[in-house]
Amino acid sequence: MFFETLINGLSSGGTYAMIALGYTMVYGIAKMLNFAHGDIIMVSAYVLFVMISLTGQPLIALIISIIFSMILGVVIEKLAYKPLRGSSPLAVLISAIGMSYLLQSLVQMIFGTAPKMVVIGDLGSITMFGVRIPVYILLTLVCTFLIMVLLSIYIKYSKVGRAMIAVSDNRDAAMLMGIDVNKIIALTFAIGSALAAVAGFFMMIKSPSLTNTLGAMPGIKAFTAAVIGGIGSIPGAMVGGILLGVIEAFSFRMPMIAPYTDAIEFLILIIILLVKPSGLLGKMKREKV
Fold this sequence. Notes:
By secondary structure, this protein is mainly α. It has helices spanning 2-30, 37-55, 58-81, 89-111, 135-157, 159-169, 171-176, 181-206, 216-229, 234-253, 261-275; strands at 116-117, 125-128, 131-134, 209-210.
């Protein structure tokens, strides 16, 4: 039972981590909290639904979903965030919440309120330690780990990645050095949205029921995971997501505390922030005055 619960926790944690990577990319480089991120997952899942219905090919549907989500992420940045650069964080937050409800409403107008079923197919399972483990769980964990490693390498060693670091450290200085800040921020949103689409794909394998509020709670929990791990830290997003997923799985297993699982997760967030405000792997930045 312990191993089975742990595997379920790693499954949820891998999905949270993948979503949290998108959050942490956008915040770490653009210094914006994209609270419409969860709804990009929802939109990407509806694109999956449409494309699978048309083609019957989940892999082709995933590729189109990723491309569509990247375009959507760039459009959202241009419409909702770019005009507010330099504004107060509250203005950006209100714009993000407005964009979130706009996406939910548009999808509801197009597809209605009835749940849709996304049939991706059974990937099978393997047996480990006497427990049958669905292949999609292992695939989720492997993909999340590979994405974390590739993102870390890309940002640290590529020319564009170093430009991202420069924009994150000092946007004005980066502009003076000839870096196109607008393109870098747009690319950041595109990468984050692509990760949201991949996360949506794995969410549909696990639970194929699709509604216009699909991304709301996973988005909030993934943001919580990003903050726990240290928002802005790519390994931190992975650690926070896995930790949150495992805590959630074991809480659900205990009848006495199962109804309070969400409260427990957010309580852990508060405790971690009280002890280490920058998160588990985040770095505290000194501000010069």
